[in-house]
Write a structure and sequence with these properties.
Layout lengths: L12 H23 L7 E4 L3 H16 L6 E7 L9 H20 L4 E6 L8 H12 L11 H26 L1
Parallel strand pairs: 1-2, 2-3
Organism: Gossypium armourianum
GO biological process, one term: tail-anchored membrane protein insertion into ER membrane
Pfam families: ArsA_ATPase
Length: 175
């Protein structure tokens, strides 16, 4: 038994109890930090499908039992309708996803929900992660392939605001 705690056989019960008491203090400190929403928050990451919605609900309920903050959900791999989609399969998938996205918004109306796009490639490497992570601070906006000049001007205006907000956030992080 003493080998489990990194001790030689020469240590007795008192040494083991002392080590357990020390571990208990660390566990209580970690537990206290997990329950403090200013120090720890759990971000649920899911995809817009039934099983993921169900498991997210189970996770939120379980974390609530332990008083761990979980007011953030990222819905990953969302197919956005950013152009005229011709594929019947993609149209059906988007319709199915939208059903579950709507359910996420109904169930978690007081949560911060962020939708992230399905990408044609896996996000790997530092640069790809940096590029993708910008969607955590400002919501993903599908590309406008078609539209009026007014639509494009409105989009440019929104992007300028997002850039200003991102620059302000960056400046805060640098301080």
């Amino acid at each position: 038994m003493t080998h489990l705690f990194g001790m030689d056989d020469e240590f007795g019960e008192d040494a083991i109890l002392g080590r357990l008491e020390g571990m208990k203090d660390v566990i209580e400190q970690v537990n206290k930090q997990f329950k403090d929403p200013d120090m720890t928050t759990f971000v649920c990451v899911c995809i817009p499908e039934f099983l993921s919605l169900y498991e997210t609900e189970r996770l939120v309920q379980e974390l609530a039992k332990f008083e761990i903050d979980t007011h953030n959900i990222i819905i990953n791999q969302v197919i956005f309708d950013d152009e005229d989609v011709e594929s019947k399969l993609l149209k059906a998938r988007m319709k199915m996803q939208q059903k579950y996205i709507d359910q996420f918004y109904m169930l978690y109306d007081d949560f911060n929900i962020t939708k992230l796009p399905l990408l044609p490639q896996e996000v790997t490497g530092v640069e790809a992660l940096k590029s993708f992570s910008r969607h955590f601070l400002s919501p993903y906006q599908p590309l406008c392939k078609r539209g009026t000049v007014e639509d494009l001007e409105r989009r440019i205006s929104m992007l300028k605001v997002q850039i200003s907000e991102a620059e302000a956030e960056l400046e805060k992080l640098r301080k």
